[in-house]
# Entry
Amino acid sequence: MRRDQFPEEIQPNLIPEPGGELVYRCLGCRGEHGIESLLYTCPDCGSVLLIHDRQFDRLKAIDGEHWQRILDYRRMLKIPALKGIYRYHEFIGPVIPLDSVIYLGEGHTPVVEANSLLQAKAGMRFFYKNDGQNPSASFKDRGMASALSYINYLIRQGLVDQVLSICASTGDTSAAAALYAAYLNPRIKSAVLLPHKKVTPQQLSQPLGSGADVFEIPGVFDDCMKVVEALSEQYNVALLNSKNAWRILVLRDSTILRIAGRVQGVPGES
# Structure
């Protein structure tokens, strides 16, 4: 279906343009900081940062039913950047240009109905979201798509260069982080810290297979995380653990979209 065949009232919003005014907002002191720098905790009080859109109210100019039509028609486009989480560009990361989006097929995982025995035990009909069919076999791919698209945006804007992405992990995080970072090589290098002898060969093979440098640290996951946090506080590195505000953004806003889909007619994340 060609773009000129879409309904006339849909066409102005079909291809999203960069917009909004995103800032880091501290959960503790409520201070705000620009997104032009890699930040993970508040420079003023050390609390967790979240992404806040100062212009979010602009989206209320379009009602829920019309947003549903826009997003439904948008999924028909053959633009890779709009196939994953950035199909909801205005709600997820509106400042990110589409040419900065990293899309590897995340999000389009099947919903599978539970078998009759389990449904009988639960006393209700229910379904599984089979996120094992994401690119790295992990639900964490959505958050990594957001975090690495943001880093790609910073690189393309000339705000950072030769970035080192790091994470502490025992499995899924390292697999997703290394895979998405590999698509920005050589502009970004990937390092993973794993607890020594606490991961399986299969878990170890995933970041290695994506070209990450893997370091085994004595101790447990928390010890790896302390090293990662210290590095992110002292050097210009991209921390890809769950305290990364761009990963939190996808988890938070996709949940809001799912609720809105039930209440106001806005579809949830694919």
Remarks:
- The beta strands are 22-26, 32-34, 49-53, 111-113, 127-129, 163-168, 188-195, 213-217, 237-239.
